[in-house]
Structures are given as structure tokens and as C-alpha cells.
């Protein structure tokens, strides 16, 4: 993907016109993150990303994270307190601006994954291996922000 077609900020830039809100769910077990591979009928078919989706009208970002995670993987987080908001990124693409809310869910045992029709595969990927995978546009930048939020004392690559 052409990385120059996307701008990502960790603050709200004046030129950002986004009213759309999106959530990304960073599901972590034993220093590995759950990644989903987009199905063939999707725009970025074959590329990998975290469970994510739009916040619906009259829905909080945290409730959207719970819903999207369940819809895309079958993982049901019953207690919203286990869904930790890490912050937001402001994403600017040629045809759309949106706010990307990052959520961390720490699991202690590997769940059974039931993929939605939007995805064709899943993988528990170690942090150091993710940047070698073909990722959806903006995923690498969001992953770096996730690392900054969750591992602030580690040297960043």
C-alpha cells in the first residue's frame, strides 16, 4: 500500500474533519496479539489487522469495541472494565478522516476464535514479528502507538 496516502496524528490536527469513529481491539495473551486476515472480498484482502470497526450511532467507543470483538471473533468480554481505553489516533485518508480509538484487552487463556465472514484467518503474533507481516494501511503506525501506551520504557524501533 502507498503509505503516503494516509496521515496519522496522536492529536487532533486543525485540518482533521473526521466525525466517524472507529475502534481497534488489541487482544493480548503472553506478549502476542490477535491479528485477523481480511477475506478475499474485502478491499485489503489478505492483509492483517486487529479486530476493528465503526462506532454506531448512540454507542460509546468502549461498547463498540465489545461488540466488534464479539462480531469478528466470537470473543465475549462480559465486564466492560476489562476493556482498557489507551487513547485515540486521528487518521486522514484521501476520501475520509476518522478517529481511531485503541483498546487493550488482556486475556489469560487462549479463547476459541469464531471468525466472521469478513476474515479468512487469524494468528496470535508476537510483537517483534508483526511488522514483518502484510498489514492493513495504518496498522503499523497504530501498533507503534499501542506499544508506546503499553510498553513506555522499551526502546522503540
Largest sheet: 8 strands, mixed
Q: Note poorly predicted spans.
A: none
Share of residues in helices: 10-25%
Tell me the CATH superfamily. Answer: Nucleoside Triphosphate Pyrophosphohydrolase
What's the level 1 CATH class? Answer: Alpha Beta
Query: What class would the helix/strand composition place it in?
Result: alpha+beta
Rg estimate, integer Å: 15 Å
Alpha carbon gap, first and last residue = 21 Å
- H/E order of the elements? EEEEEHEEEHH
Tell me the domain tally: 1
Kindly report the CATH topology.
Nucleoside Triphosphate Pyrophosphohydrolase
Could you describe the 3D structure shown?
The structure is a single chain. With 157 residues, the chain is of the alpha+beta class. It has a single domain, classed as Nucleoside Triphosphate Pyrophosphohydrolase (Alpha-Beta Complex), CATH 3.90.79.10. The chain is 18% helix and 33% strand. The chain is built from three helices and eight strands. Strands 1, 2, 3, 4, 5, 6, 7 and 8 form an eight-stranded mixed sheet that branches. Strand 6 and strand 7 form a beta hairpin. The longest helix is centred in the middle third of the chain and has 13 residues, at 61-73. It is globular. It starts with 6 loop residues before the first strand and ends in a 7-residue tail after the last helix. 25% of the residues are buried.
